[in-house]
Structures are given as C-alpha cells and as structure tokens.
Amino acid sequence: MTTQLLLVQTLNGLQFGVLLFLVAAGLTLVFGVMDFINLAHGVQYMLGAYLGATLAAATGSFWAGLALALPAALGCGLLLEWLVFRHLYARDHLSQVLATFGVILFLNEAVRVLWGSAPLQTPTPEALAGGITLMPGLQYPVYRLAILGAGLGTAALLWLLVERTRAGALVRAGASNAPMVAALGVDIHRLFMLVFGFGAMLAGFAGVMAAPILSVEPGMGDTVLILAFVVIVIGGIGSVRGAFLAALLVGVIETLGRSLLPDLLRLVLAPSPARQAGAALGSMLVYMAMALILAVRPRGLFPARAG
C-alpha cells in the first residue's frame, strides 16, 4: 500500500469514526442514563438519511433538507419514546431487546412501503463538491472532510453540553445513579425523554450527513448499530468522551483492516483467496480489539462511574 492510499484510508476511517460517534453518543447516553437497551437506535440513523434525502429533493437544497430533517428526526424519536419505549423502562433487558427488535422490523418495512426498496441517492451539495489537494497527485473529497469537521464540532459541543451545563450534570449523575437523581426531586422521566430525543436527533444527523456518500436503503442502520454497540462497550457505557475516542479507533481499525489485510495476505496467498480472507479478517479486527481492551479494562476506556 502506498503512502497516498494509506493517508486516504486513514481519513476515510476517521470520517467513518465520527459518523459512528454521532450514532453511539446518543446510544451510550440512553444506555448509561436509562439502563435501556435500544436495538432500534440504528433505525433513527436510517430515518435521518431518508428524511434528509426526501426533504433535500423536495426543497432543492441539501442544507434546507438538513435543517428540516433534524427536528423531524427529533420528533420521530420523541414519538417512538412516547408510543413504545417509555412502557419498557421498568422491564428487564430481554423484554427491551425483543420489543426494540420488533420496532426495527416494523420501521424497516414501513420504509419499504413509503419509499420502496430501491436505494435513494442524495447529491453532494455544490458548495462541498470537488476535492482538495492533500499532497501532489492526491485529492480528497471536500465533502468527506466536511463530515469529519462536522463530527468533530458536534463532539466538542456535546462535550461542553455534558461537562459544563446543569443539564449535562444531570445526565452524568443519571448515568452514575439514576435512582438517586430521582430521589433528589429531578423529573427523571422528562430527563429520559429529552436524552432519548437528543440521541435520536444525533443519529438522524449522522444519517443525513452519510446520505450523499452511501446508498439510502432499508436496513442501512443495522450494521452501524452493531458497531455503535462495540463503540460504547470499548469507550465505557455512559461516557461521551469514551464514545468519541472509541468511535475513531473503531472507524480506523475497520477501514484500514479491510484495506491492508488483502494486500498483506497476497504475500502468502493467491489474489482471490487473499481478498476473501482479508475481507473476513478485516471485519474481525474490531471485535478482536474490543476483546483485548476489555481484558485490560473490563468497564471500557472511560466508564462514566469512574468520573
């Protein structure tokens, strides 16, 4: 692999990592604060992508579609919380898993009914079209750099919100000891609702930003959901800082693993077996890294209760 290709794949990994963070940040807050396993969080990412693509096509502007899709994703999250999820908070984790898996099936089919099974394409906004020269002979898409910048900016704002505001203090306290927060007079149900809605909006934002570089199709949130769970386990449940660092780590490992391993295996295998084995091992690297990290730090890199 050349230096240029290594740089491109590293940037692709970081860009994928910030998208994972936008999904995982809401998931880790919901899991950490509410002790609620929401397998349907990935469909919020999918709904964000569909809403962004549809509204961008209707308005003729990606930016207008983004601005409208965010409150729409928030509204969808709050509606699901009101209709389904609030009735599951007191149930055991198995009930939550089964119920939210049912929500996945329902919403995937609802998307097929409303938009069809054919993938939707969202054009890249004109202001971010083209590429930027990183080194002689190497151009990198401006839009992918914009995704990286938007993710980093969102991470900084989320850190300020969680670490420097009263609402953030309540969220951190809820992640550490929700019953105690409720005993102190905080409306824990309203806190849960706001955390859930905010997490849904973050996932929707990730879906809108990913739409121009990925196919918008039913079930697109399933793979992202699995990796988002890996992120929150590695980073520490309830920790936004842990989710951010773990998401970047997972994104880089996932991308570089799929790119580097086939080339390395070609040194000992024929091209076709090397490509197949490299793709399989590349997918395994993330889980191997998770196992190694948990062997050293069983609660993740930055567990919420550790401060």
TrEMBL record:
Question: What's a Pfam family this protein contains?
Answer: BPD_transp_2
Q: Which GO terms describe its biological process?
A: amino acid transport
Compartment(s) where it occurs, according to its Swiss-Prot or TrEMBL record:
Cell membrane
GO MF, one example: transmembrane transporter activity
Keywords (alphabetical) are: Amino-acid transport, Cell membrane, Membrane, Transmembrane, Transmembrane helix, Transport
Transmembrane segments in this chain: where?
A: 14-33, 68-85, 97-115, 142-162, 192-214, 226-253, 273-296
Give the record's family classification.
Belongs to the binding-protein-dependent transport system permease family. LivHM subfamily.
This protein is called what?
Branched-chain amino acid ABC transporter permease
